[in-house]
């Protein structure tokens, strides 16, 4: 995993467990995923939902 993160230029950061306040950015991103991508549109299959993810996060 660390090798993949380095290749992508991502620096992992640690936060305290069970404290979403200290991890606010990623918690907000997760909420945005749920509200905007995962359940806003009806998908017939989970594979269709997963196929829509890259376009939704602008990859």
Q: Mean pLDDT, rounded to whole units?
A: 83
Oligomeric state of the chains in view: single chain
For the largest beta-sheet, the strand count, sense and barrel status come to: none
* Through-space gap between termini: 20 Å
Estimated helix fraction:
55-70%
Uncertain segments are: none
Shape: flat
The Rg value, from CA coordinates, equals: 14 Å
Strand coverage percent: under 5%
What are the secondary-structure elements, in order, as H or E? HHH
- Number of separate strands: 0
Summing up helix and strand content along with how strands pair, one would put the structural category as: mainly alpha
The total of helices stands at: 3
Give an overview in words.
- The protein has 59 residues and is mostly helical.
- The chain has a domain at 23-59.
- Helix content is 56%, strand content 0%.
- The chain contains three helices and no strands.
- The chain is flat, with a radius of gyration of 14 Å.
- The chain starts with a helix and ends with a helix.
- The relative contact order is 0.08.
- The mean pLDDT is 83.
List keywords for this structure.
59 residues, mainly alpha, 3 helices, 56% helix, flat
Task: Reconstruct the topology from this structure.
Blueprint: H1 2-8, H2 24-38, H3 46-56
């Amino acid at each position: 995993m660390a090798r993949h993160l380095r290749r992508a230029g991502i620096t992992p950061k640690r936060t305290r467990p069970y404290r979403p306040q200290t991890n606010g950015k990623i918690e907000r991103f997760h909420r945005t995923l749920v509200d905007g991508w995962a359940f806003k549109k009806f998908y017939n299959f989970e594979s269709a939902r997963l196929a829509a993810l890259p376009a939704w996060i602008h990859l």
